[in-house]
Amino acid sequence: MEESSRKLRSKNEFEFASSSILSQVARGILVGLIVGVIVGSFRFLIEESFHFVQHLYKDQSNWVINLFIILIMYIFIIFLSARLTRSDKDIKGSGIPQVEAELKGLMSLNWWSVLWKKYILGILAIASGLMLGREGPSIQLGAVGGKGIAKWLKASPVEERSLIASGAAAGLAAAFNAPIAALLFVVEEVYHHFSRFFWVSTLAASLVANFVSLLIFGLTPVLDMPDNIPLMSLDQYWIYLVMGIILGVSGYLYEKAVLNVSLVYDWIGKHLHLDRAYYPLLAFILIIPVGIFLPQILGGGNQVVLSLTEQDFSFQILLIYFIIRFIWSMISYGSGLPGGIFLPILALGSLLGALVGVICVNLGLASQQQFPIFVILGMSGYFGAISKAPLTAMILVTEMVGDIRNLMPLGMVTLVAYIVMDLLKGAPVYEAMLEKMLPESATDDGEVTLIEIPVSDKIAGKQVHELNLPHNVLITTQVHNGKSKTVNGSTRMYLGDMIHLVIPKNEIGKVKDLLL
């Protein structure tokens, strides 16, 4: 441990612990501005390009020419994807598992390579009509943007992780106009703990990135719902419990499907002798019939969500939409193209909620005016179950629809869905994805760094020698009542204090699980 510790730039590391709140806010603002521009332009180009592709599918007057243009575009994306993903495999898929791995010290992303390759290929893949979301890539773009800023500032490793987390939150805030949910998502799903220096810079970055996004897209919520939706009466609350159960079970089935869709692709690729780099070929071939016959349900899904409250769909149509979007979301994500499952999950949840809503309205259990609330609850419960991040789900949907009156129903449905998912032994989907990619990506170079974590209920009241830490992990200081002091074996841990540990990068995740 002593030999490894010499690699640690101790002066720079410990300067972070004493850095001022203002400096953290300033760094957060810088990250927010840069990431806001990156992700704001990413989102703008995706939306404009997708509208063009959707128009080609809808315009039946020149369908032969339009289809030819679409085919040329898809062929170009396939070959560009093969070239770029072979040069940097970390641009594939959502990007959120890679960010988690970076913050756990399990891998190190080449920030510039990921930034420009994911940006270009992400725009083309997500705008092509495939059922991919922009939010996962936006989070990864934000994270590598934060890492690039850290390199420019010559920040210490612990400051670098803080800026990476701030960038990830800023990316989600700019993608969804949901800065508070972005902060919670990074805490619940990515960073896994809440420290003063972390949340100050992250909140600043999220707010600034959201402001930049609002300048580009305006103040209208991303999923603007009708105003003055009548609330359910107390004797209708049992519906929320039933709905939570349905969403929890459905979320479990979704997770099983999305984690195993790669096996289907591998089986098909093996029999067709298709190289893994060309898996997008299958996704594009299969999306064309959907584009020809149902162009209105193409894309990430925000148009689908909005249409549910603008049009009157029958149960049969909603069920067909759900089945198609479920299957083609798997096909799209399994292709390995840059694109996430965040928005597609919300779209599927909205359709499930709409299905429950139609049943309740037809049976006289709810009024037609109350129907939009089922769409909102479906998004929160489904995402909360699959991600196992219920607080994020509640606040995210609230910010996206621009209505805080539904927090009580959202809380009930999301909690029940989360409990059902947990009883079924479902794992947080992004952590499960990370576990699947670890054998290929994990690093073990023994490089050490400093991390800061809070004293949790799990270790509060214990002395340092009672923590059973790995032999290569050392607690250096404890911050108690705002004062930092060196620890020894008999130092007692107090709830809410912060401790600093010198630790190999590849042990970060394990030690956090042990102490938090």
Give a brief outline of the structure.
With 516 residues, the chain is mostly helical. It is 66% helix and 5% strand.
Helix-strand blueprint:
Blueprint: H1 2-5, H2 10-18, H3 21-58, H4 63-87, H5 96-103, H6 111-127, H7 135-153, H8 157-176, H9 179-191, H10 196-217, H11 238-272, H12 280-293, H13 302-310, H14 315-334, H15 342-362, H16 371-387, H17 390-401, H18 407-423, H19 429-441, E1 448-454, E2 474-480, E3 483-486, E4 498-504, H20 508-515
Antiparallel strand pairs: 1-4, 2-3, 2-4
Helix pairs in contact: 3-4, 3-6, 3-7, 3-8, 3-10, 4-6, 5-19, 6-7, 7-8, 8-9, 8-10, 9-10, 9-17, 11-14, 11-16, 11-18, 12-14, 13-15, 14-15, 15-16, 16-17, 16-18, 17-18
Mind explaining what this structure looks like?
The chain has 516 residues and is mostly helical. It has 3 domains: 211 residues, Orthogonal Bundle (Clc chloride channel), CATH 1.10.3080; 202 residues, Clc chloride channel; 72 residues, Alpha-Beta Plaits. It is 66% helix and 5% strand. It is built from 20 helices and 4 strands. A 4-stranded antiparallel sheet has the order 1-4-2-3, covered by helices on one side. It is globular.
